[in-house]
Amino acid sequence: MNGEAEKTQLKKTDWKTFGIVTLGTVILSVGVYFFKFPNNFSTGGVSGISILLGKIFPVLSPGVTMWIINAFLLLAGFLILGKGFGFLTAYCSMLFSFLTWLFERVFPMDAPFTDQPFLELCFAMMLPALGSAMLFNCNASSGGTDIVAMILKKYTDLDIGKALLVSDALIAFSACFVFDIRTGLFSILGLIIKAFVVDSVIESINLCKYFSIVTTHPEEVCAYIMKELKHGCTVLDAVGAYTHGEKKLILAACRRSEAVHLRQFVRSVDPKAFMSITNTSEIIGKGFRSV
To answer: What are phi and psi of 236, to 5 degrees?
Structure first.
């Protein structure tokens, strides 16, 4: 019976992950097509290369170019990396290319939405950053240069992060020559913004609260954490340095939505309890993230 329950829970988790990466890819596609392409913001990656090639070879639209490049990289990934190559990455890469191509057919963009390039740059960076963060959080990606990184990691000793940063910087810098200085500077600024925003969004998505609670009512607090919040906790013996009174130190972690309830409960059962609450985005273990 427990085995069947675990399988059911696993299926629910798989469908939830599938839904999250699909939504993330849609958000990514909207940001790239409606804000990045019309303004020629070449901030790196396959989309940046597609924008540059679309200008050099007008017969190829950025959407079609991106589809071709992603398909080629996916094929190379399966041939070189084998079956271990991620299904979610392949799915997101193809969905990203398809949605971009579909938007070109259904909502052709001959010009940007507004005459405010900085405003559009914000959306061109924020939406893809949010979408990418949702994918990374599910151990997926939109493919593209990430596949190149996986291949390089397998066969070379290169610092992949620095190599990709350099390649993205070259793509952004190339916009100065393919388009104009103004577009190139916006592309370079967008690349810098993207580097900070993606990490910030990932941390925000995974943000949890870590509690250190010094109390004389450990049984009630632990029971609440385990039965109501469905989390574990650790109890340590503690001695007050000033009063020399014996107390218990409870260590526990919970999600942001649960933190308020735990704080209120501790205050209700032990008004003199001392609590230290910190933010953390890297909690690995049962009830949170797997390794």
So the answer is: -125, 150
| CA pair distance 17, 154, nearest whole angstrom | 27
User: Residue 9: what pLDDT?
Assistant: 45
For the stretch 234-269, pLDDT in tens is 999 999 888 888 899 999 999 888 999 999 999 999
- Give residue 205's pLDDT: 72
Give pLDDT, residue 64.
84
Q: Name the range with the highest mean pLDDT among 13-17, 29-33, 59-63, 254-258.
A: 29-33
pTM recorded for the entire structure? 0.72
Give the residue range(s) of CATH 3.30.70.120 domains in the chain: 207-280
Sheet holding 233-239, edge to edge: 233-239, 246-255, 208-215, 274-280
Neighbours of 218 (CB within 10 A): 19
- What is each CA distance from 92 to 48, 64, 83, 124, 134, in whole angstroms? 18, 16, 17, 19, 11
**Amino acid identity, position 209:** K
How far out from the chain centre does Cα 150 lie? 18
3-class DSSP state of 68: helix
Was domain 207-280 assigned CATH 3.40.50.300? no
Token pair 């994918």 in the structure block, residue: 135
- Which has the closest alpha carbon to 91: 154, 24, 158? 24
Give me the phi and psi of 145, to 5 degrees please: -65, -20
269: part of which helix (H) or strand (E)? helix 256-269
Q: Which residue reads 């427990």 in tokens? A: 2
Q: Which two tokens stand for residue 232?
A: 């574990």
Specify the DSSP element, H or E, that contains 233: strand 233-239
199/221 Cα distance (integer angstroms): 34
